[in-house]
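FORM 12-B: Structure-to-Sequence Request
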């Protein structure tokens, strides 16, 4: 690199220098929508995903200094422990936001920021919005400009550095301290896509908890004077060489950084399943609606899959009859069958009981994959195609175009409020409708809030 500073330094300078007044309206709006969405999903997971209980029990039993709240469950624990628990909740339903290019910044970013805000106190809405926008922006720029081969989990190996930068902003660290925090975090960062592709897991969302915990610890260590390392990203054994074989584009990562904010394109899930399944879910729902399809009329269902989606149909027997809720959310046979039968999808549709629904399992058994490279995932999430053959000889097909929750059909504030309410009503906190409305209103006008712990008081 010669005399050019490692990429960690300009990224840290961006994080340390951006203020609320520098943010365009769309970036502010995206940050607030992400906060509403992530909080809602955390609350929903507290009541709907039994696999989070061991994490909550572990954190609660360990105890420690009462610094930050666990959403939905209440009680205070050390900030890093709260970030771990809340991050696990945030990705526990696979219902959290993502970039238009895939991967999940918010489910680790926002729990880490909320834990630090709770610990520190006196954090304003403007400061929280700014930190979220910083984290989203750096995540997107890194995600889109590295050569990814579906090996490392991008949400982990990219999200830790954008998360640390955001946390550093929230705590008012200098650019030098933020660069050190990134280096510290690198010693505990990783995770491969096998956690996504493999079956049998009951909580893939655990990785978001680990990222959030790591981000909090690294930032606090840097604040206390611990040093990181030089040449973190571009050194001889730096992040880009180790994780991405040296395939990255520095110029695009830094292009107009601080002037253009790509985070305005954040997307929010309409359905509680892996994002790559949404085009298939949408196609199935619309096919059933447009043709008035009844399950008993269906002879066969074909799903056309590319390189990534192919993993959601293999091994086919396990995908047709998933053993865990998390496997069901990653199964194309199960999600497509559920969509065809119910014509919609809510968090309540994924439960231990739903895994044994004979109607869904019978239709899932009729789903067969067809590999088609036209549906490969390059950078943009690919479309999906569903084809139904009926017993009376009809062949009906549909692509999942204009999917709700995508840039082509973004979710409105009203739809996000409805999703938040659905999740909040399912939480262990048993939130009253009036409390839900107050939380929604507070987030919508968050820039005018002088103390964000008021929001945490409503939701824990």
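FORM 12-B RESPONSE
SEQUENCE OUT:
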């Amino acid at each position: 690199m010669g005399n050019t500073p490692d990429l960690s330094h300009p990224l840290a300078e961006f994080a340390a220098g951006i203020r609320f007044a520098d943010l365009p309206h769309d970036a502010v709006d995206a940050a607030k929508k992400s906060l509403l969405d992530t909080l809602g999903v955390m609350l929903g997971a507290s009541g709907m995903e039994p696999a989070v209980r061991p994490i909550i029990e572990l954190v609660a039993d360990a105890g420690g200094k009462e610094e930050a709240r666990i959403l939905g469950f209440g009680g205070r624990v050390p900030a890093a422990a709260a970030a771990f628990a809340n991050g696990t909740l945030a990705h526990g339903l696979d219902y959290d936001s993502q970039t238009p290019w895939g991967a999940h910044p918010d489910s680790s970013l926002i729990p880490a920021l909320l834990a630090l805000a709770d610990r520190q106190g006196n954090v304003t809405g403007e400061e929280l919005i700014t930190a979220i926008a910083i984290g989203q922006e750096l995540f997107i720029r890194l995600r889109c400009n590295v050569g990814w081969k579906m090996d490392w989990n991008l949400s982990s190996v990219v999200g830790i550095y954008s998360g640390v930068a955001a946390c550093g902003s929230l705590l008012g660290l200098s650019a030098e301290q933020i660069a050190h925090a990134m280096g510290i975090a690198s010693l505990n960062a990783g995770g491969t896509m096998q956690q996504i592709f493999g079956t049998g897991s009951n909580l893939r969302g655990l990785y978001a908890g680990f990222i959030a915990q790591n981000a909090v610890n690294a930032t606090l260590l840097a604040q206390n004077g611990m040093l990181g390392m030089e040449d973190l990203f571009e050194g001889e054994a730096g992040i880009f060489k180790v994780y991405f074989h040296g395939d990255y584009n520095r110029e695009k990562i830094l292009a107009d950084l601080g002037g253009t904010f790509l985070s305005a394109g954040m997307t929010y899930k309409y359905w509680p399943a892996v994002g790559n399944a949404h085009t298939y879910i949408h196609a199935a729902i619309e096919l059933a609606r447009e043709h008035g399809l009844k399950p008993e009329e269906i002879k066969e269902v074909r799903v056309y899959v590319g390189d990534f989606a192919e993993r959601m149909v293999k091994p086919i027997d396990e995908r047709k009859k998933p053993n865990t809720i998390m496997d069901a959310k990653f199964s194309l046979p199960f999600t497509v069958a559920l969509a065809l039968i119910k014509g919609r999808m809510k968090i309540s549709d994924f439960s231990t009981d739903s895994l044994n629904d004979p109607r869904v399992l019978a239709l899932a058994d009729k789903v067969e994959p067809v590999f088609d490279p036209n549906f490969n995932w390059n950078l943009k999430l690919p479309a999906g195609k569903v084809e139904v053959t009926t017993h009376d000889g009809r062949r009906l097909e549909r692509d999942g175009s204009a999917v709700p929750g995508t840039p082509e059909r973004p979710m409105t504030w009203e739809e996000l409020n409805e999703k938040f309410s659905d999740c909040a009503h399912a939480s262990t906190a048993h939130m009253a409708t009036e409390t839900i409305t107050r939380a929604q209103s507070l987030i919508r006008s968050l820039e005018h809030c002088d103390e964000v712990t008021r929001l945490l008081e409503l939701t824990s």
